[in-house]
Design goal:
The chain is mainly alpha-helical and 97 residues long. 55% of the residues lie in helices and 0% in strands. It contains 5 helices and no strands.
């Protein structure tokens, strides 16, 4: 029911309430269009559901802007911790004993 007039919402009004664009075309009879709108998931709602799934379930981390200096520091830290042999420091210790 319309909030101010004694009539039902039109298909165009329901499409707008459901966040469908005005140029979105629904085919079929009046009843079929109502049924399709009633069974649909509004696009804006689906966008938020998909974002929550991406962020929560997949543990997605948004990329951050890193400067060239930050990238170089990360590379040098990784290079400092790489062992010289496949066994790491354990091989050096065994050879010294």
């Amino acid at each position: 029911m319309h909030p101010y007039e004694k009539r039902r919402f039109s298909i165009a009004e329901v499409k707008r309430l459901c966040s469908f664009p005005d140029d979105f075309v629904l085919k079929g009879t009046y009843g079929q269009q109502w049924e399709r709108l009633g069974n649909s998931v509004p696009p804006v709602m689906m966008m938020h559901i998909a974002s929550a799934m991406r962020d929560g379930l997949l543990n997605f981390q948004k990329p951050t802007k890193r400067t060239f200096d930050q990238i170089e520091k990360e590379r040098s830290r990784k290079a400092a911790y790489q062992p010289s042999s496949p066994c790491g420091d354990a091989m050096k210790y065994k050879a010294a004993v």
